[in-house]
Amino acid sequence: MKRVRIGNGCGFWGDNLDAPVELAAAGNLDYLTLEYLAELTMSILAVQKAKDPAAGFATDFIDVLSRLAPVLKAQPQLKIVTNAGGMNPHACARQAKQVLAAAGLADKRVAVVSGDDLLPRLDALFGAGHPLNHLDSGAPLTQIRDVVVSANAYLGARPIVEALKLGADVVVTGRVADASLTVGPAAFEFGWEFGTSALDRLAAATVAGHLIECGAQVTGGLWIGADDATRLGSVGYPIAELSADGAFTLSKPAGTGGAVNLETVSEQLLYEVADPARYFTPDVVADFTTVALAQQAPDVVRVTGGTANGLTDTYKVSVAYRDGFMSAGTLVIAGPGAAAKARRSGAILLEKLKRSGLTYAETRVEALGAGDCVPGVVGATGDPPEVVLRVAVRDPRRAAVERFTKEFAPLVTSGFPGTTGYTTGRPPVREVFAYWPALVAKSAVTPSVEVV
Questions:
Q1: d(CA 416, CA 358)
Q2: pLDDT per residue as tens digits for the range 357-392
Q3: pLDDT tens digits, one per residue of 79-95
Q4: Is this prediction's pTM over 0.85?
Q5: Rounded Cα distance, 43 and 151, in Å
Q6: What is the span of the domain harbouring residue 408?
Q7: Are residues 238 and 363 in the same domain?
Q8: Which InterPro entries match (predicted)?
Q9: Do 306 and 330 belong together in one domain?
Q10: Backbone phi, then psi, for 132, in 5-degree steps?
Q11: How far apart are the first and last CA of the chain?
């Protein structure tokens, strides 16, 4: 029986740079997926592209691809599918092609999936009756049109399949749904169509994609049972081995650290899931309540089920818009009553600014180490010997936020005893990019696939 091994070596932009190379070398993979994009990442990439038309993609991928060259030579059947293209998949693909050529792999075909970038078409979409209303508030996007910096539809697996049909060895996409990076290779290898006849199999592959999309988070990372025996320092990244009916095993390379068990898989299955019976993707609405897990062997979990619960006629759209400025500074407060002194120090800082005529749209004072990180969930059991005071503000006025950054150092001599930790200087001021989720009809978006 044909089986397809898909491993994910990257769960976000900033993930471990060695993981993709180690997974590809030891995983006996058919496909290596690399997932780089989050909503915040897209807004950062949009700003980068606005400053430099050749930028706007996850540059870590180029470094990783260079290091993967020996593996690609040793394993010529290995294909790569990645959303590293971000806001500029064509530029990313061109650099990938150059890297491969420099490594003696000029014969590798690189394909680009695009069409997700709706920003140049926003006004036309509004005019055609697509208001891109906020999914929670229902407000139309037109009310913040002037400050929108990116708007991307989450494409599905279908254009990835088209790229593979063109003979691509490396598929570079813009914004696609995370799970679709796995669904695409599976659908291509097994010849699944995207009609109603294959929805259950697409749903099962969506479960696989969801489980491996965050990399080591399903192989022991953040596992509630993790301890020194878990060997997270050498944690292995996940491999989904799928069969034609959609059932699969989840594992990691032999000898690596981490763990694959019913707890690690269950935890990841529920990650970022609002309604387990309706996990929306561009490919299918998957029902996670039908998933069954079984420990097949040490660090091998068999996953069955994962059925379809319909199909939508819309794509989710991730919009980022400028929403003022923010800054957050910290100081260490040590000694008796540290938490109370920290909270009072934060209040004093804001009181001084108020006397100077400055109040802010949002403020937050936290005594980290005293239960403020997850208030009401994990509380302090006693008087901690030291805490980190963190004060943050957000406001439309950059000058007001800059003034805030200058109020930390004075507390070192005018605050409570035990105040220290000021040697990092004034905190930076950052522009805030807020998130606007919306839907757009699939008929209004045309994915594009080409080989570069």
A1: 23
A2: 999 999 999 999 999 988 888 877 788 999 999 999
A3: 999 999 999 999 999 99
A4: yes
A5: 9
A6: 319-436
A7: no
A8: AtuA_N
A9: no
A10: 50, 50
A11: 34
